[in-house]
Amino acid sequence: MALYLLYTLVPLAWLLISATKTQQSLLSTSGLAFGGSFALFDNIAETFTHDGGIFLRWLGNTLLYVVVGAGGATVLATAAGYGLAKYRFRGRRAVFAVLLGAIAIPGTALAVPTFLMFSQMGLTNTPWAIIIPSLVSPFGLYLVWTYAVEAVPDELLEAARIDGAGEVRIFLKVTLRLLLPGVVTVALFSVVSTWNNYFLPLIMLSEPDWYPLTVGLNQWSAQASGVGAQPIYHLVITGSVITIVPLVIAFLLLQRFWQSGLTAGSVKQ
Prior knowledge:
Blueprint: H1 2-18, H2 23-28, H3 40-49, H4 54-86, H5 92-104, H6 107-120, H7 128-134, H8 138-151, H9 154-162, H10 167-178, H11 180-195, H12 199-204, H13 213-222, H14 233-263
Helix pairs in contact: 3-14, 4-7, 4-8, 4-11, 5-8, 8-11, 11-14, 13-14
């Protein structure tokens, strides 16, 4: 555990310390040593104002992709996973086989076919080129499916049907509350995956106004090479610190749902 914490925290410490340095002190001091002056707040202000405030646009784009793409993926995975777990229909095993196959295929292998398909539809260099692929989460669907099998008793569903509740009402009023820890897990996986998505936006987008933070920061980093290069490593590092803050907040706010799920049913009343 100590080695794992060291491996995890040292890069984070380097990132936080480096964000407090100016461009000059960043290149002239050790990675884990503070510079001569504390420039964190100046770096944050410069990050948001550099190049006409394009960083704020990239942040807004990333939030758009996460809210619509990851949010939609969570909704679809929850509904489909519950349906596959609790309803019997023809072709159910075939769906399971296709789902496992989709999980086994890496996303990078589908990037080029996806680009060609979206190019023919005229959707490249638009937000839909990022949002639509983000809506499909085979792993999230599988996770809800396996969780719903044990978390939602069939007897409870039958009791609700006997009381006259329709299937939609059962799903919204009964099932969602039982599936909440699993839904939160899928949501976090989807949010992190969409937030850190780099390769798909890189091939789908050519207009900087639609870049997410990952591609935008890489573009800033690339300015350090070539003729007439203007390194802005201090802004790249500060921007990287800003990008991890929303994810940390999301984990802190949603961890209570995992705790409630783990302890549910552990005490008889």
